[in-house]
Specification:
Elements lengths: L5 E6 L3 E6 L2 E6 L2 H13 L7 E5 L2 E5 L4 E2 L11 H15 L11 H17 L5 H11 L9 E3 L8 E4 L2 E5 L6 E3 L1 H9 L6 H8 L5 H21 L10 H7 L4
Helix pairs in contact: 2-6, 3-4, 3-7, 4-7, 5-7, 7-8
């Protein structure tokens, strides 16, 4: 039998993901991440990968068929119908019973935002006015919310579609009770033109102003982690571009 090739999907100081044939091996330095992922996938009323086995620190899951809904920094080739189907899928998740473990509260978000803005300013990552303006826009997200079951890192590359059907949602380690608008914002970060399609499937009660505020907030708080772990938030269409674009709002 021929040996399967091993593909390194992602690797940094916190975790690594390898693909061997049709199985992904996720190796995480914090076993709590995989534990949350396993529990969240068992509870979520949406398509999720099949768990092959779990022996900390390794979680083995089956590949999901289909293709990514999109990827930050690249135009999404998925159809409007696929985005609408994604909105309906996210709504099912948000309407589900809450997971029993705690999520981040408003005070946690405010502290993180203030700390990350201070770091961005101290390291001259962006002009002061860009950071100041985005911190101002982010205020609209800093309000009490009714917790729902959120994925917590619902990037379009974590949603797989086949034609107009959602076939799977991956990477559940950040799942928790949280703000529904955060999930919708992460999905459309850098894909603003897809927001109407997403919300057509999600339903009428989404707050567009709060989603736009989360675009700024997410980009502000994620940039340092990306830089320190070898990613480039300054690539075209990515987080720093999103922050610059908010100056036109």
């Amino acid at each position: 039998m021929d040996a399967e090739e091993v593909e390194v999907v992602v690797a940094h100081s916190q975790r690594a993901t390898l693909r061997v044939g049709d199985v992904f091996l996720k190796v995480d330095g914090d076993p709590a991440h995989a534990a949350v992922e396993v529990r969240a996938m068992s509870m979520a009323p949406v398509p999720t990968p099949t768990i092959r086995w779990h022996e900390p620190p390794v979680l083995a899951i089956a590949a999901v068929h289909g293709r990514e809904l999109g990827r930050l920094g690249e135009p999404s080739s998925a159809s409007p119908e696929a985005w609408r189907a994604t909105g309906a899928t996210v709504r099912r998740l948000h309407d589900a019973p809450l997971p029993p473990w705690p999520g981040r509260g408003l005070d946690d978000v405010v502290r993180e935002l203030d700390a990350e803005c201070t770091w961005l300013l101290a390291h001259d990552v962006l002009p002061t006015e860009v950071i100041r303006r985005n911190r101002e826009i982010a205020e609209a997200a800093l309000r009490p919310w009714r917790p729902v079951f959120v994925h917590g890192d619902l990037q379009p590359c974590h949603v797989f579609v086949d034609g107009d059907e959602v076939t799977g949602v991956i990477d559940w380690s950040e799942a928790a009770p949280g703000d529904a608008m955060f999930d919708l914002a992460v999905l459309t970060l850098g894909h603003e033109e897809r927001l109407d399609d997403l919300l057509a499937g999600y339903g009428p009660d989404a707050d567009r102003d709060v989603i736009r505020a989360w675009w700024s907030l997410r980009s502000l708080v994620a940039s340092r982690w990306l830089i320190e772990h070898g990613f480039d938030p300054g690539a075209p269409g990515c987080e720093l571009d999103v922050l610059r674009s908010r100056m036109r709002d």
